[in-house]
Amino acid sequence: MSQQPSPNLVQLTYLIYGLHLFSAINGVLTSAFVVTAFLSGWPSILAVLLNYVKRDATRGTYLESHFRWQIRTFWFAFLWLLIGMLLVFTVIAIPLAWIMVVFVGLWVLYRMLRGVSRLVDAQAMPAA
After folding, report:
1. Three-class SS of residue 62?
2. DSSP characters for 11-60?
3. What is this structure's pTM?
4. 76-119: per-residue pLDDT in tens?
5. CB within 8 A of 107, min separation 6: which ones?
6. How many Cβ atoms sit within 10 Å of the Cβ of residue 35?
7. Residues 47, 126: Cα–Cα separation, whole Å
């Protein structure tokens, strides 16, 4: 990743993190869970669409890792939310589902804040 990204792409990456964080924080401040607000809020959906539309423009730059980080966060949160929803159908696992959704919400907040922190320092995200 040797190419320097354009300033417009860096600003877009900040905007995408901002949209994701807006949705996630909305889940903290309202009665919604962080993860459900993150996945169903229009800012996050718009953000992941922007990730896919602009992903090719980030190839070869450190922003490519940020876009991968954001996309993976969205889809892994979606997967864990689906698993949590399936657990709700088994009455015994409802407490486990609730705990899982809370932890996934915290994980989403962590990943978005860590991403912004590394973006501020113009660093790539780790491969995982």
Report:
1. coil
2. HHHHHHHHHHHHHHHHHHHSSS-HHHHHHHSHHHHHHHHHHHHHGGGGTT
3. 0.87
4. 999 998 888 888 888 788 888 888 888 888 899 999 999 999 99
5. 77
6. 26
7. 20
